[in-house]
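Supplementary notes for students who missed Thursday's class. We covered one full example, reproduced here. Read the sequence, then the structure, then the short commentary at the end.
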Amino acid sequence: MQATDPLAGPSRDCALCPRLASYRAANAAEHPDWFNGPVPSFGPADARLLVVGMAPGVKGANRTGRPFTGDHAGLLLYQTLLKFHRGRGTYKAEPDDGVTLLDTRIANAVRCVPPANLPTPAEVTTCNVYLQRELQNLPRLKAVLALGVLAHAAVLRACGIPVTRIRFRHGAIHELPDGTLLADSYHVSRYNTSTKRLTAEMFETAVKDLLARLG
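Structure (token representation):
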């Protein structure tokens, strides 16, 4: 059941995606001290910038309950946001590390951890309603940073824009029909950073360029 808060995500026992619900249950049985639920967004509701990732990592956000927290992907993301004064604190990869975000919010296109870190197209479509509500109910939203092709497509779908209309390209900044900026970056995953498909310099440049447009 959807909570009255329009920014609320799926309920803890969400069963809309049977495969993801089953995987959550398996993780909960093996690791009862983990979060093991749909991971809520993180950051203020009056943020002008929304960062959208793909889905929680099994030992990252699925364990900690905070997006991009606890695995390799969060290192570059949080360090960059802190470097550009989009947050306060010191990122220590745990939800109680005291990090707070400033004018920035983080969400995932799919709120539950998927097996092998890859949601199916049907799961992305099913969970898109929560991203749509997020985009529609952030009153000061001006820009979205999509981390990867899947997040880029999910944002377009949530905005009612055909996915083929705006192609993903790292470093690109697109202006959507309502004036919202959509910026693209390769995902901050371990694979992308270890293979140098995405370097810290590349990611920082993408963020810096978007923030310059955001003002």
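Commentary. The chain has one domain: 18-214. Residues 18-214 form a domain with the Uracil-DNA Glycosylase, subunit E fold (CATH 3.40.470.10). If anything here is unclear, bring it to office hours.
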